[in-house]
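Board notes, transcribed. Complex of a protein with NG1.
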Amino acid sequence: EEQRLLLLHSSSLFFPPQGVKLSYGTAGFRADASILKSTVHRVGILAALRSLKTQSVVGLMITASHNKVTDNGVKIVDPSGGMLTQEWEPFADQLASAQTPEALLSLITEFVEKEKIPLDGVQSAEILLGRDTRPSGESLLEAAKQGISSILGAIALDLGILTTPQLHWMVRARNKGMKATEPAYFEQISSSFRCLVDLIPNETKSSKMDNTVVVDGADGVGGEKLEVLKSMLTSLVIEVRNTGKGGGLLNDGVGADYVQKEKVVPRGFCSNDVGLRCASLDGDADRLVYFSLPTSSSRKIDLVDGDKILSLFALFIKEQLSILTKEGTEKLDNSYHARLGVIQTAYANGASTDYLKQSGLEVIFTPTGVKHLHEKAAQFDIGIYFEANGHGTILFSESWLSWLEARNNELGLASEGSEQQKAALRLLSVSKLINQAVGDALSCLLLVEVILQHKGWSIHKWNELYQDLPSRQLKVKVVDRTAVATANAETVAISPPGIQEAIDAETAKYPKGRCFIRPSGTEDVIRVYAEASTQEAADSLAGSVAKIVD
Ligand code: NG1
Ligand code: ZN
């Protein structure tokens, strides 16, 4: 009864927006910040229920990532550090659209019963809260706290302004019984970076590689965190621009999404930067792309996107694995051959997929959204996933990691300092540097940098791994985006009827043409992606398919 009254009272303070239906899309709820309060309040309730159900710590992040500053969003981090289980998403949708406190209460009561959630006030729940730098974040965080405290036994721990991946990392760490503070995060990634630097072969160590990277912080949270991190590193100089402190507007003409989609120089970069190795984070620092300015005369950039980061990582891991498992002289247990898999979505550039396959890698496709990629990657001993937009990470299975630890110890006794042992140490360090909970621009940046140093590669050399096929992405505003449904990892539109045939007919007109459409999970649009042998052809294919959709 006390619980009932608490919920009724708390929800009577938050009115759901009229005439809009929000849904838990690709990455939680997202909308204009002004209509989000009641949704965030309810997600607070949901997070508390999730924590009770799993008897573990969960997270709640307030961010709208790469979207405009006036938008915001909210999502739940599951105990593993990954996204909220998809099984709970429909319930999240129902909660968000309940019209009255009574309707909300009856939904919750029913769900608690069905899921057997111990909502008795005896069990406790704990939720870690984080938010990005958006001005609306503070008051939305307050709404989340009120939602959480309307569940008996639930407590919220406000961690302040964080990158999204930091919060994911901390939830995972907490549930593993590890220290889950920001200093612990910085310590882990900087020390594993230093280990990898120490293991750089002497031949490349002496090469005159430029160890400076210029980073566009998108005027978001990433820049300020990078300033802290960079002071803990040696052998790498990081220059941060668009830190948010210079008055620049978040994600406005800056950031990974802008750079990847528009393929032009972001604000804060100029002709003096020609030839430098540059990188862009997105607004909550879970995406990373690289670029360079080829000439001072145009705004165009040479983009090094998520697919190429993936390729660089895959190449490095594969190399280290083959050193590790090379038939050595010692009779040691070489038997655990890691299953290595690479996960992409339909947005991956076709040239990247060809390259990866030619390099002997197993490539798998999933629908858009990290939750899908992550799930697939977790099925491998080493699963590397990336979206073309720069969101991705490397997952290591527990069983292979414990084998690797043991192997490293054996090698340490039998052949300390051997090539094999160095390979084992490198792989162990990668598993600590890279964020195992979710794609993380900061840890990916450090891994890219140390691999380039390891190989003695410039950004140009890296970019030449393969040449991207020209591509074009468009968005089309439609009345009802749910009218489009897709199959086969979103490569085929199964409704409305006839639309796929029309797309196929258009695509057939272009050499190397590839095109697909899908409803966005974060914006009210249909996305069109086209690829072809020339930029003009890709533009024209995307344009005509956009007309079909319209
Ligand atoms: P939607 O709006 O569902 O396309 C976008 C990105 C996703 C993912 C999410 C979450 C593209 C084409 N889509 O999803 O890859 O990053 O945002 O932020 O880049
Ligand atoms: Zn993001």
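The pocket of zinc ion (ligand 2) is lined by residues 65-66, 164, 282, 284, 286-287 (CB under 6 Å). The longest strand covers residues 154-161.
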